[in-house]
Specification:
The protein is mainly beta. It has no helices and 31 strands. The chain has a 5-stranded mixed beta sheet, with no helix packed on it. A 4-stranded antiparallel beta sheet has the order 1-3-31-30, with no helix packed on it. 56% of the residues are buried.
Length: 444
Amino acid sequence: MRKLAIFCAFAWLLGAVTPGWSSTETVLHAFRGARFDDGADPVADLVYDPVTNLVYGVTNTGGTGTACAAHCGTVFAVNHDGTFYSVVSNFQGGIDGANPQAGLVADAAGNLYGTTYNGGTHNLGTVFKLTYSGGQFQESVLLSFSGKTATHVSGAHPLSRLVLDANGNLYGTTYAGGASNHGEVFELTVSGTEQVLLSFTGANGENPKAGVVFGSGGVLWGTTYRGGGPNLGTVFQLGQSGGIWQLNFSFPFAGPNGANPAGAVVLDAFGNVFGTTQFGGPAGCAIAAAGCGVVFELQPNGNGYTETAIYNFSGGPMDGAAPLDDLTLEADGTGTDLYGTASEGGTLGGNCSTVGCGTAFVLCSQTSSCSGSANWTIYPLVDFTGLHGLDPGRKPAAGLLIPPPGFDSTPHGKGGCTSACLGTVSQGAANGNGAVVSLTGPGN
């Protein structure tokens, strides 16, 4: 266990770093890697399943599947306090899939759904289901992606988390494949049929890394890592007209306002859309010529949406840079709190002397109970220093999970991490293969 007190006091045009918050970081499970078959390199979001009262995640490598160079990945379960850890499924690298890089989604019966980047019939990735029965999971492959062929258009290499609709249909994206081989948005119906909802062309976006989320009226929101006019990625919205899905809205990033969004967006109750970009922002970022990334907001304006970079990462000490995954939104009754991670930045030193080991943060709106003097105020929760001998992990590549109240027998107070936020770090910890971590706090 390691308690980190973070003290910062420099402001930004649209946001500020505020001192006085601290977070206690606990390593719940340090992955041991392929040699011990428990997994390695966790880069995806965690999910809480109320049926089993456990948290589930995936590792990109490790496990028992030896068909992949560093083994083919796992699905694991962990308790909130680290007293329980178990591998519930091992990918073997054949038609069952390999190298999952996206988080899971759970249905009301406790079944889990996910994607693998490789494996499947054509080695272009899969959609899989883990059916829960009698305290165990049984894997089945729902879809093997085939890419574009002479007779069929399909996706390839999904990196996205799936989303379920009320009828049990699954929606997601693929990084490649589709009609132009720039990726697609797809629906997998309950009958097992893949429907291509949108093929990216480059002009309207390219290479989505994140999945889609539902918005008001049944629309789908998502991001593409590249494409759009400047080829710096987009935020898009799909809707149905006459039963046909079509592109309603596409916003291309230009650089100063953000570039290359790698995570999904999150929506509040008022229709505002929030997300992060890996690069972009003002010139002069300490560790990346393309900018250290931003947190952005799209606000409805009556005729469309207005985009604002509500926070610009600096890459400096205890700030962060290069956020790779989605934000977690928690409304506290008066305002909005956005929790997230940055894969680089923070204090330079130890194993991350050049670009930093990353941070975890909360960004509070001006009307939130944790607000500061600026429109948005950032509070660094943890600075992953990567120091030898004190390395609880580094390089977070996934977002933070805020379990529901009562999950860990501790009532929530002000801010979602007053009880505990759970997340992963993709590298470091005791065995160098990443870890599942718990962040308890903050309290000011």
